[in-house]
Amino acid sequence: MPGKVEIRNIRKSYGSFVALDDVSLDIAPGEFLTLLGPSGSGKTTLLNVLAGFVRPDSGSITIDGTEFLTLPPHKRNLGMVFQNYALFPHMSVGRNVGYPLRLRGVSAAEIERRVRDALDLVQMAHLADRGVDALSGGQRQRVALARAIVFEPSILLMDEPLSALDKKLREHMQLELKRLHDRLGTTTVYVTHDQREALTLSDRIAVVNGGRIAQLGTPDEIYDRPRNKFVADFIGETRFLPVEHGASGLSLYGRPLKVRDEWKSLTGDTPWLVVRPERLRWHGEETDAANRIDAETTGVIYQGDSYLVTVRMPDGVEIDLRRGPDIAGKELPQRGQPVHLWLDREHTILVSDKP
Amino acid sequence: MTMTLDHPGTLPAAAPNADALQRQGARERRALASLTLPGAALIFVVLILPIGWLFWQSFFGAAGQPTLENYARMLKPVYVRTFVTTFEVSGLVTLACVLLGYPVAYLLAQLPERLAGLLMIFVILPFWTSVLVRTYAWLVLLQRTGIINTWLVDAGLISEPLPLVHNMLGVVIGMVHVMLPFLILPLYASMRAIDPVYMRAAANCGATPAQAFRQVFLPLSLPGLAAGVGLVFVLCLGFYVTPALLGGGRVSMWAMQIADNISVYGNWGAASSLGVVLLIVTGIILYAFKRLFRTENFGGTR
Amino acid sequence: MLSRPATQTQITHLQRLWLYVLVGLVFLFLIVPCLIVIPMSFSGSKYLEFPPRTWSLQWYEAYLGSPEWRAATFVSLRAALLTTLFATTLGTIAAYGIARVHGAVSSLARGVFMLPMLVPLILLAIGCFFVYAKIGLNGTTTGLVLAHTMLALPFVVIAVLSGLASYDMNQERVAQSLGASRPWAFLTVTLPQIRLSVLSGALFAFVTSFDEVVIALFITGGQNATLTRLMFANIRDQIDPTVAAISSLLIGLSILLLVGSQLLLRKGARK
């Protein structure tokens, strides 16, 4: 299967600001890879380098072994979906989708067939003759997608394509994008700052920060094995608790901390315990497999489907926990009450400050 | 999944393609810059070159000898009178434009956008009408046997026709008519951009309407006013058509002096030096206004 | 009605009646000279009068019957159309270059293209006259069109730059990613979307050339005299009512252009 992308040593600086700092990355054929990071991290710059809209200072990109970086954008054969869709307002839906085919000198009959197929794929065939002004945000998104895939590009690039949609539509479109990718199998590079979107869609995620790739991995690797404090903080609702690194080993609030084996040999900087609120259990027993944390309830808020319970750690750090109806019958903690929380050894994550 | 490179920083720092990319970037910038070349070349040939030539020529006498006499001559009373007249007329016209134009822009800026757009026709139609046509109309209105004098005499208000044209008054009236849109349009645009919430805030703080206008609106509208004033003043300095037709030979302005030196006396040296000084004065005034009021885009209205 | 508040600061309409009166008078001052010539041009007497006591088309007949006026009109129209063509083309591609190339080159080019608007016309006129005398362009259509094109360039550049400023450059990027080369992307995607700005620039270019007097006064003459040159000489030397007929026609043209440009603006605003 073609479409293997090798990105090597991409550097781009604007004056003294380094936007991309020696970025290297491999993308497998057919893979859905997401560049995830805060704004200004360099993720969009990297996408624009791929598309040919930003010329880096140095570096190399090959697709199936052929150098690609020195090609002008229109010879790269990439489909791109922009954040604002960039549909041509002076063309109908059908003419928008047919534009890349007309550029390639495809015959009129063939264009008609392929435009219809592409629009069918995104369930927009019935609106082919509409002007783009008449379309809703979600419809524009679909047309932009159809236009980007109709010429069967080797790679599909998407720059925050869902960020302009409301939450409900966004979640719906995420699933549709995933289905479409499963069906077409086009190598896709997707940029977003929305971690949930990244987790939902991607085969792999590259977390980008400060012009570098902070971590590259599958969604569960990124979520469950964050490599550093930045990644742990950026993904999920995360609290950091200070771990003491003494002669007798690791401890948290004076109690020995039972961690997974891989952390036992940890040396160097004082680590932090990464706490994902949903991994904290309300009930547990003092065993080798679980850590007990003594905290105090400082607030209980009813939210319909669940309660939001705020607990305060001994050092003052507050964590919001969700308490669902599944433990009905058990008593709800009251404000001011002490509470015991349990964290399985299996779910302990330690990170250090250094990137 | 393929092999991944999790620690890009640990790779040896390489700079592949750096030269090729740099060359490409330079080539693209050159290609884009070259798009301006045909137009720029035309401006060079028909504007910069001739002006340079004038500048060069202004240092030579009638016999072709290098001299400063062209500049020394400007201190003669006949020229000094021209400069004084030019500044006098320009100043009067600018002042009249401010007094007449500010209230118009102010009122239009407060009206609903549709109504203001409709009333704007009163400003834009003159703007689109040829200066020559309008000057001709003023001549018809103001001359001894013109409409205004005929009416006034017929009404018995005056016994002799008033000298309304072929003098400074006629020139000023005609020029105000030409210049007024140049003041109103940028001023209106800048007043529209003033958020009315400031006036509400001022009133809320206890300012009377007059105080709110003086202390809040007026200062905020000054940059727009300055842009209009600067533009009108420099346009007046070099204005030819209206003073030449409405002055009746009795009002000698700078631009007319330059034209007469060519067409009547054939004195290129004198015309060149007058032109060079006019250009420098114009440049200084535009630059000063730009620096003082940060006004951009002179004349970007038409 | 008059006691209702008129502004944010609760001034009533009555309190600023003076403002309405003043603005009304200024509007009259602005509009009367533009319109008064029209009825006078239909005067039946040998002199201009207002209001005319008798009506006729004699001055229009005089205009159309004069070979001199007809030739001048033709010269002006031809020059204005050629100027529109050249200035719009050169100005549009220059504006694109200025908008896309960044840094010092862009601001330098921007400055150069504003020069024709900032340099006093009389200087351009005698400068052209002088240079044209050396290269034999005085009295030629080429010389006139070159000078007028130069004069019109700033207006086209300003109009197109403002169109490009509100244009989404991603449109052109997406066209490139879909396989269009840059010039082709400009022609098929950018140009159709900034066409109103280009058109209004073209309109300015036409008016700039057609109404221009001072340069024409110096570099045209005889067979090649423009309409404005002839009118200028006519107004200066005698008051020939034929000019009233021509002026009325020009005013009609201005109104047409004004309506046209307003429609363009309205269409642009709706988008």
Q: For the largest beta sheet of chain A, what order do the strands appear in spatially?
A: 6-7-8-3-9-10
Binned, the helix content of chain A reads: 10-25%
Mean pLDDT metric of chain B: 87
The CATH topology name of the largest domain in chain A reads: Rossmann fold
Q: Calculate Rg of chain B over CA atoms.
A: 27 Å
CATH class of the largest domain in chain A: Alpha Beta
Please identify, by name, the CATH architecture of the domain at 95-252 in chain B: Orthogonal Bundle
Computed structural class of chain B: mainly alpha
Compute the number of helices of chain B.
14
Shape of chain B: flat
Number of strands of chain A: 21
Which CATH architecture of the largest domain in chain A? 3-Layer(aba) Sandwich
Report the end-to-end length of chain B measured between terminal Cα atoms.
Answer: 62 Å
Order of helices and strands of chain B: HHHHHHHHHHHHHH
| Net shape of chain A | globular
**Beta-strand percentage of chain A?**
25-35%
Describe the 3D structure:
The complex is a heterotrimer of chains A (355), B (302) and C (271). Chain A is of the alpha+beta class. Chain A folds into two domains: 5-233, P-loop containing nucleotide triphosphate hydrolases (Rossmann fold, 3-Layer(aba) Sandwich); 237-351, Nucleic acid-binding proteins (OB fold (Dihydrolipoamide Acetyltransferase, E2P), Beta Barrel), CATH 2.40.50. Chain A is built from nine helices and 21 strands. In chain A, the strands form five sheets. A six-stranded mixed β-sheet of chain A has the order 6-7-8-3-9-10, with helices on both faces. A five-stranded antiparallel β-sheet of chain A has the order 16-20-17-18-19, with no helix packed on it. A four-stranded antiparallel β-sheet of chain A has the order 2-1-4-5, with helices on one face. In chain A, helix 2 crosses helix 3 and helix 3 (108-121) crosses helix 4. The two termini of chain A are 35 Å apart. Chain B is an all-alpha fold and 302 residues long. Helices cover 71% and strands 0% of the residues of chain B. Chain B is built from 14 helices and no strands. Chain B has helices spanning 18-34, 37-57, 69-72, 77-110, 113-119, 121-128, 131-142, 147-154, 168-192, 197-204, 209-237, 241-246, 254-263, 268-293. Chain B is flat and about 95 Å long. Mean pLDDT of chain B is 87; it is low at 1-12 and 297-302. Chain C is mostly helical and 271 residues long. Chain C is built from 13 helices and no strands. Chain C has helices spanning 17-35, 37-41, 58-65, 67-100, 104-118, 121-135, 141-165, 170-177, 182-193, 195-211, 214-219, 227-237, 242-270. In chain C, helix 3 (58-65) packs across helix 13 (242-270), helix 7 (141-165) runs antiparallel to helix 10 (195-211) and helix 10 (195-211) runs antiparallel to helix 13 (242-270). Chains in contact: A-B, A-C, B-C. At the A-C interface, strand 6 and helix 2 of A face helix 8 and helix 9 of C.
